[in-house]
Amino acid sequence: MNRFLIHFAVIAMFIAAMLFTSCKKDVQKDKQFFVTFVADNGSSPTTMKVTEGKTVPKPEDPVKDAPEGLYKGPPICTFNGWYNGNTPWDFDKDIVSANITLKAKWSTNAVDISKQMSPEILTKAVSYVNANASAETTFTLVLASNVTSKASQLMNVAGAQLTIVGTGATRTISFFRQY
After folding, report:
1. Cβ proximity of 137 and 121 under 8 Å
2. What is the model's pLDDT at position 7?
3. Contact of 141 with 164, CB cutoff 8 Å
4. Same domain, 36 and 99
5. Are strands 32-38 and 47-51 parallel, antiparallel or unpaired?
6. For the segment 43-57, what is each residue's pLDDT rounded down to a tens digit?
7. What global pTM score does this model have?
8. Residue 38 belongs to what domain range?
9. CB-based contacts of 36, cutoff 8 Å, min separation 6
């Protein structure tokens, strides 16, 4: 009878262990949130999943082509960091507690020529260079569309240089002379 009781006790412990492990509460999974990166026409990852209470892995800095406009020197867009609203995001300290959107902030060496837009952009750019350049000053005009302009205004600063380039494609610049 002792054998029977030993087998019964072993089987009862096995069944109790099985019931105990199957009745355990489900382990709660960590909450996951989405971090969305908006690069303002620059290159970047679009979204990343991050566990609640964790920091966001810092993505590679995005790059961006200069938009249409006049630039002193070559056109440059400088990435200034990722921002949550107006606050810079600190990838080493800031933690995720909800879905968030981080936006890229940029600065450029653009010259304000009063909301330049094609086709007036060429005339405004030449006027600005003539009024503000000295010898050896370089400017770059980036065009987002084809331009037709009167040939009545020419560069008149000795040694100044104005380079004209197109964004994303070859652009055509047509001059005509008014008689």
Report:
1. no
2. 52
3. yes
4. yes
5. antiparallel
6. 766 889 999 999 999
7. 0.67
8. 32-60+79-107
9. 46, 47, 99, 100, 101, 102
